Each structure stands twice: as C-alpha cells, then as structure tokens.
C-alpha cells in the first residue's frame, strides 16, 4: 500500500507538471518517466482492497465503473448510469421539526413523485443522447483555455497563440500571435460592452472582442473580425486567471501567479485596484452578477462584491482557506470553480467535486470517479447540467460526468477510447436547443449533440464522409444566422 501511494503521488506531481505553462529540463525528465510509473501502478492496483474502490460502484459485484466506453470517437454514446454519492462534511445539528399533517405529507409525496419522474425522464434522454466529436487541429502544445462566441471557438495554448475556429466547418479562421509567453486564460465581454469599445475605436458595432491573459505579464484585447490586437495591458505579473465584470462601465479582473487580484477599467484600461488576496497563484476567476469568485492553487476561495466605484471597486465578502474548502494539500495545485447561487462547485485534482456554501463555509462533496486515482480537472455548468471532467492517473483515460441541477444527481458519463485529458471547457446551444461543447487539453475537440430528427439519420449514413457533413453544417449555420446577416 505504501508503494501504491508513493506512485500515485508521483503521478499526480507529473500530471501537474505537464500542464504548467513552462517546464525546466529537470521537469521534462520527470515527465518522461510517466509511462514507467503508470505501468508499475497498474501492476499493484488490482492487489488493493477497501472502501476506496467501491465509490460509485453498483451492480452484482462486477465492479462496474462510473465511466463508460464508446465504440467510435465520431459518435460518443452515453452508457448505463450508476449513481454518484453526495457526502456531507462536518458535524451539522438539525433541529427536530413537528411532523407534518397527513394532507401536507400527501402533497409532499406528490411533489416528490413528480420531481422523481422529471429526473427519470431527463436521465433517460441523456442515456439516449449522441455526440459527434470533431478535432480542431492547429496548436502544437496543450490547450489551456477555450471560450465560445456565436459560431466561433477561441482557444489559447501554451504555444503562445490564440486561435479562432469556425465551428460549422471545423476550420481555423485566424491565428492571433503576439504573446511571448503561454496563453493561460480567455474571456469574452458581453456584446453591449463590445459595442462601446468598437465605437471608441471607430470599428463596426458588430465587432466582437476577446481578452487573453498570458505568462508574459500582459492582457491583450483582440478584435475578432479584423484579427488584430487593439489594446495590450501590462500587468507586471504573470496572468493566470481572467474574467469580465458586466457592471457599470465594466471591469477586467485578473489573477496572478503570486496570488494578486487586480481590477482594470474597461473605459480607460487603467489599474483601479490591486489586492494580495491569495498565498499562491490565482487559478480561476468567475463572476455571478455583482459577485466575483477567485480560487487559488492552495485551495482558497475568495468572494468579492463589485461596488462600481472608479477606485477599489471590489469589496471582500468572504475568504475561505484550503483548510475550510477541503481543497488544500500542498503547492502546485490547480483549483477551478463555478458559482451557482449560494454554492460554488470546486475542482481540485481529486476524485470528487467539492461544493462550498460560500456564505457560511460549509462544504459537501460529490463523487466524480469510482477510483481514488481519478483526477477532476475542471467543472462547468450549462443550463440544468453540472459537468465535471475526470482523468484516471492509472490508465490515462478521460471522462465527462453529467449531473442534474440543482440536486446534483448523477445522469451519465461520456468517454471514448484513448480520450485525452480535458483541462478546459466551454458550452453553447444551437437555435434548435442542441448542445455544443468544446474541450481543451492535449486535444481541442468540439462535441456536437445529434438531434433525433432526420438530420441525425443523415449523419449516421454519411458520417464517414466529412466533406458532406461540413457542407450540411455550413448550410445550417447560414440558416440559423441569415436574420442577423441581413440586419
């Protein structure tokens, strides 16, 4: 058991090294030993026994895993669904309540039955869902961040470039070069803020902008239509996280590798606040209305309120260290977060997701893998779905696990043979309501949900003929956007 834990620890260290924005020769040598360590761990792992191996397992003792395989990469088909468990942390005292009346009990039972029926229907629909996967090839290093704007996917990479992709045709539209260090983060300002900047630059009102942060200590603002950098902000620190606050005149919030949170005016691009808020690198910044959430490598989470002031607009509401969030555990960590109401979902390289009640600091956890060797890299929400990515240290397989919101009940898992590690995620929906996702990491892949209409049957027949599918996607994109093009 001691050797297994040592191997797991070494593999975790290597996996963390692999996604660093820059590597030393010594670190590259350590990474070269990954296959050897993984092979040794695979030999020892079947000898283990204990409760760690039973998380998320159901069935007749055959130890079915939470993740399921798909036959072909072009159509990832969700498998049978084992439940994930939600485990409360800490000692909570509950007050004894009076027993409800029979009428109230009947009403509650009816509501519960209706809710359960809705969940059963939702789970059944996701079990039948199909996705077509299309790789976007062009980066020559890991993809660290992705965003989606209309029918475009924008990706940032350790190779220092930002690329713009046209999704319907799966082609590279623009290669935005200008950073001298790896690109670490991206965000897209809302259209109304893009229009303000476009007018000030005498550009078209339909111009869209993307913000990119980099290890070269800069934030660049790119105009997508003309494919140029229109503004560069020097931050004096490596930028490791980034978001846009859509309040007042608008703000850019950045996080640095030293734990600093900085705020920049969208009007003047001047710095209006700098706070040493975290002990280590800020690895995730997200917004929810006037609130800003920042997470750091040591596992801490800070919650800020935007007061729309010209100077010092962010006011700290809460700070929960790694000892509270349960995401601590040493240097080199990578926390990603996704807020929803009073909860924040946290991913921190563990076999589960953490759920932080940010107002009072209470936590719970949601199983995201059936083995303790599973690593959760990112968490994302879209509509009524919570999606967590998982990477198995032992065999190198990756999975997307889907949960229903707000109850966080397990729906299904999506994977395919030799699926690469997924480090970042973005989502959007088509005019018909179908899901479109993009995952980044070792590969950049677009996930296209296939509808149950005739179009799906067409894809099944002609799925191997890529040019026909690309034409079909292009015409569908034209149909969905013809109104905005004529306006």
From TrEMBL:
Bias-annotated ranges (Polar residues): 46-55
The WD repeats are at: 136-175, 200-232
Q: Specify the domain of life of the species encoding this protein.
A: Eukaryota
- Cite the residue spans of the region called Disordered: 42-117
- Read off the Pfam families from this record: WD40
Q: Where is the composition biased (Basic and acidic residues)?
A: 60-71
Q: Which InterPro entries match?
A: WD40/YVTN_repeat-like_dom_sf, WD40_PAC1, WD40_repeat_dom_sf, WD40_rpt, WDR86-like
Instruction: Report the transmembrane regions from the record.
Output: none
Provide the alphabetized UniProt keywords. Answer: Repeat, WD repeat
Record's protein name = Si:ch211-154o6.3
């Amino acid at each position: 058991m001691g050797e297994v834990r040592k191997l797991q620890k070494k593999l975790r260290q290597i996996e963390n090294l692999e996604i660093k924005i820059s590597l030393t020769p010594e670190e590259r040598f350590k990474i070269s030993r990954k296959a050897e360590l993984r092979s040794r761990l695979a030999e020892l792992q079947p000898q283990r026994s204990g409760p760690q191996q039973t998380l998320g397992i159901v069935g007749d003792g055959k130890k079915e895993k939470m993740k399921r395989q798909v036959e072909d990469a072009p159509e990832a088909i969700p498998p049978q669904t084992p439940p994930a468990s939600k485990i409360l942390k800490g000692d909570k005292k509950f007050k004894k309540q009076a027993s409800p009346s029979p009428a109230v009990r009947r009403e509650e039972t009816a509501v519960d039955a209706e809710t359960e029926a809705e969940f059963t229907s939702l789970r059944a629909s996701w079990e039948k869902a199909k996705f077509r996967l299309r790789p976007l090839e062009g980066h020559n290093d890991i993809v660290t961040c992705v965003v989606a704007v209309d029918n475009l996917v924008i990706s940032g990479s350790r190779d220092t470039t930002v690329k713009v992709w046209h999704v319907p045709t799966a082609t590279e539209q623009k290669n935005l070069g200008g950073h001298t260090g790896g690109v670490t983060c991206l965000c897209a300002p809302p259209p109304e803020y893009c229009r303000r900047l476009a007018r000030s630059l005498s550009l078209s009102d339909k111009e869209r902008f993307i913000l990119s942060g980099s290890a070269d200590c800069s934030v660049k603002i790119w105009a997508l239509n003309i494919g140029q950098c229109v503004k560069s902000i020097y931050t004096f620190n490596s930028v490791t996280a980034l978001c846009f606050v859509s309040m007042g005149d608008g703000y850019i919030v950045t996080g640095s590798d030293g734990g600093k949170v900085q705020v920049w005016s969208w009007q003047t691009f001047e710095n209006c606040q700098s706070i040493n808020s975290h002990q280590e690198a800020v690895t995730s910044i997200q917004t929810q209305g006037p609130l800003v959430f920042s997470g750091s490598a040591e596992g801490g989470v800070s919650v800020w309120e935007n007061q729309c002031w010209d100077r010092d607009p962010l006011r700290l509401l809460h700070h929960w260290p790694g000892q509270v969030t349960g995401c601590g555990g040493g240097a080199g960590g990578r926390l990603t977060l996704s807020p929803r109401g009073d909860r924040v979902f946290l991913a921190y390289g563990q076999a589960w997701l953490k759920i932080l009640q940010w107002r009072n600091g209470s936590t719970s956890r949601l199983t995201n893998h059936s083995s303790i060797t599973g690593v959760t890299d990112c968490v994302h929400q879209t509509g009524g779905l919570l999606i967590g990515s998982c990477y198995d240290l032992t065999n190198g397989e990756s999975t997307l696990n889907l949960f229903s919101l707000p109850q966080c009940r397990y729906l299904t898992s999506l994977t395919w043979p030799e699926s690469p590690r997924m480090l970042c995620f973005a989502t959007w929906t088509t005019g018909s309501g179908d899901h479109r996702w993009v995952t980044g990491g070792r590969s950049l892949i677009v996930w296209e949900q296939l509808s149950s209409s005739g179009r799906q049957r067409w894809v099944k027949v002609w799925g191997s003929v890529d040019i026909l599918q690309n034409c079909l996607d292009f015409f569908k994109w034209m149909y969905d956007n013809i109104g905005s093009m004529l306006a």
